[in-house]
Structures are given as structure tokens and as C-alpha cells.
Amino acid sequence: MSVIYLILSNWNFIAVIMLMMAGLYIVISNQNFIKKLVGLSIFQSSVFIFYISLGKVSSGTAPILTGSPDTIYSNPLPHVLILTAIVVGVATNALGLALVVRINEAFNSIEEKTLLSLKIEDSRHAYEKDDSVK
Amino acid sequence: MVEFWVNVFLVALLVVITFYIIRLKTLIAIVALSGAYSLTAAAIFVNLDAVDVAFTEAAVGSGISTILFLAALRYLPLEEAHQTRYPRLSLSLCIIVGLMLIIAAFELPNFGDPNAPAHLHVAPRYIEESYPLFHIPNVVTNVLASYRGFDTLGEVVVVFTAGLGVITLLAGSTLSMRFVKIENDLDKTNKTSKEDA
User: Fold this and answer.
1) How confident is the model at residue B177 (pLDDT cuts 50, 70, 90)?
2) ipTM more than 0.95?
3) B94 vs A30: CB contact, 8 Å cut-off?
4) Which residue in A49, B24, B52, B173 has the most C-beta neighbors within 10 A?
């Protein structure tokens, strides 16, 4: 019984760590660049959830002032930090996607295994073939 | 108490969604599931009193991010071709690191503890002093735009730099090449459909 209580009272932290490790597993073991980017964004949002869980005060409310003096508010500081981090995360995602599109144009593949097996001459050849389309 | 159980359920839902993302191989389905993941995360943020973060996550994380992924998939193959690499090794690595982190997580202050160190330092000051200074009732807005305005300026610089990077990678000669390719593909499909007819 006490084990269940321990797990439930720390459930947010345990689940966040599980999500984080799932993201890390996708990034390490999958070959496809798009799937790697999705794994990276899972890792990222698990950290967001961790921060917001740390800022929660039980029986508190959102940090928008109500005027009555005995209202309990949650901690506004993690909210501000994560607000910034979400926007920056989308910016990095966009840059990563642009790189993937460019890689696919130059080498006709977004799989790590295929790209590693290319020799330099092959890749130059593929690029010139692309160029001849123009 | 209802809040607590809703939180447990939503976080468990996130774990299930992530499990399916690991299993699936169709990239469009993976992107759709990551949109669902962001939306569920936004619901969790509402439940944990972070309404501003929930807004941003729902609009930017599940909206714009999913649209960007779908737009990129227009130019990419839609299936994952190869098997996972070293699945046993990376799985055991992740499990070991995760176990160590979980052991460390039990040392954290309890979930929702009002006497945790994070709530005792600057947070009370922001809540008490920001309204007399700036006359805005939303404390998050106050901290974001007034106390930490330079942080937000830095964020805008980061977004601008990322935009510049995307433009330099995708514009110019590569852009015209992409259009030529699409036209050629369309011609090919038209020809084959005519031959079929």
C-alpha cells in the first residue's frame, strides 16, 4: 500500500522521466530523421511538464490576481521560463526540418544508415543529377 | 482530489501516446500523434494552473509545430525504411539512466508542497509587488514583459535567427529546383494517367 502511495504522490516526476527516456530512445535507436525530431520534441515537452509540476502548489490557483488576500497562487516563475522555452523549441524544430528537407534534396534519403553508406563521389553524383533537372 | 486524479490520468495518457509513437512506422501517423501529445500536455498545464503555458502549447506546440512537420513531409518519403539500430543496447541504456533519475526524483519536495524551496524565494515577491508597480493582474505577463523583458527580447532574437537559417537553407536556387521537381512529378503522373485512360 505504501509503495502505491509513494508512486502516486511522485507520479508526475516518474512519468516525466519515463517520457524523457522514451524520447532519448527514439533519438538514439531510430534511423529516420523526422522520427528523431519527434523524439527530440517529446524529450523537450517532458522537461516542460517537469517544470510546471514543480511550480504547482496544492489547492492553489492560476497566478492571476483575484484581489482577495487569502488566495493561494501557484509559482509564476516556472510558467514564464517554459513560455519562452516552447517558442524557442518550435524555432529549433523549424530549423531541423529545413535541414532534413535539404538533406533529402542533396542525397535522396533521410535515413541515417543510407547516408552513412554513401561515399563522397556518390553524393556529389546524386547532387549533380539533381542539378541537371534544372 | 479530482484535480489530482485528472492529472494522473492525463500523464498516463501521455505515456501511452509515446509508446505508440515508438511502435509506429508511418511518418504522418507519428506527426499526428505528436500533435495529440502536445494537446494533452496543454490539458495537463491547465490542470496544473499554468494557463498561459497551456495557451502557448496548444497554439504553438500542437498547431504550428504539426503544420511545419506536415509541410516538410510534402518533400520527404512517408515511410520509415530501416529497422532500429542497436535496440537492446539503447533500451538498456535508457532504462539504467531512467532508474537512476527516478531514485533521484524521490529526493525532490513532494508534488504540490507549499513549503518547497522554489516557492519561498522570489515567487512571493513577484505576486505581492507586481500589481502596485505595473497595474497588470496577470503575474506571468508582468514577469515575462516587465521584470524579464530582456529575456523575451533574447527569445525574439533566437526566433529571428532560426527564421534566417530556414530561409538561407531553403530559398534561392534550391527553391526553384524544388518547384521544377514538383512540376516534373505532376507531368509524369498526368502522362501515366492519360496512358491508363
Assistant:
1) low
2) no
3) no
4) A49
